[in-house]
Amino acid sequence: MGNVLLSGYYGFGNIGDEAILTSTINALRKARPDLNLIVLSQHPDETSHTYNVESYHRMSITEVTKAMKKSDLVIFGGGSLLQDATSFRSLLYYLSIINLAHIYKKPVIVYANGIGPIRSRLGRVLTKRALETVEAITVRDAESRDELIEMGVTKDIEVTADPAFLLEPSPDYVVDEILQSHGLDSKTDIVWIALRDINAPDWFHGQIKTLISTLREQGLSPCFLAMQSKDLTLTNALNQELAEMDQDPLPVISNISPEETLGILELGQFCLGMRLHTLILSAKAGIPFMGVYIDPKIGAFCRSTGLPQLPYPQKEPNFDLVEEFSALMENADTYKNILNEKLSILSSLAQQNIDIVLSHLDKVCP
To answer: What pLDDT does 315 receive?
Structure first.
């Protein structure tokens, strides 16, 4: 029996990061049922209850140290942890986890990370220095590997895939209950619209409302999917504006598990997404999607899968959302074939993350 510590952006109610945690825990337990899993979380009691794991508060140095001392191996990630776009403080926090593990001589696996952007010179130096101490590095896209190489990281870097490609959907009856509670059913031609508030200009939100009207005219059922609770502010505002236009508001599905999210996405026809894991889970579900390039990780994923993306909304209109989304729908069969061809590869690459963890765990817990 070994003790494995998982560190990431866990316990914040972000479906994407919880999808990483869920799939990782399930895969590890499938391979090694006797493992004791420990998770650093913003809400450790909730995480402990949800996943049946030990959990410690991620911002308590006392609790983090206790968890670190108890562990035999540290899984760092996945997700976009090493970046300073959110804040330099965020980058320092995650680097401190790697450095603390080094102090206590705990092997670290950098696990399916998306790297960057790290714009500050100091941040890049500190990141390189920390990563030279780890046992193995896997990244979820080639662009992250290239970024680490540019920083001067000399460790071997393996390109794998996001752990969420190992996720399994909830049972059909659970998914049906969620849809029915929102006035939908499995026979509805749903188009998922998963937005986030990026202070986009009014014209962009206007195009979303036009897209909603167009989809309805074509007999489709657009529906909002909120990947985080903070996304509800925007969806609620758009629904109020639709009501003022004498249009019915869209159903809004939120506060569901990663498995439930994958299950409802599988019953959709298309998806417009502004968060990376909306797109990853859409790919896993096999439905054509369109991303909005609001950060490099979305661009990298769309390019790697061959699915379309919209540019970052600027102050003036520079694309026609209805036209672009119509092209996605017209080429649905082509995009489905692309996803079908890539899905088995991505799932296999995601499993490699687990295999690497287990191989290093064998060295410390033979």
So the answer is: 63
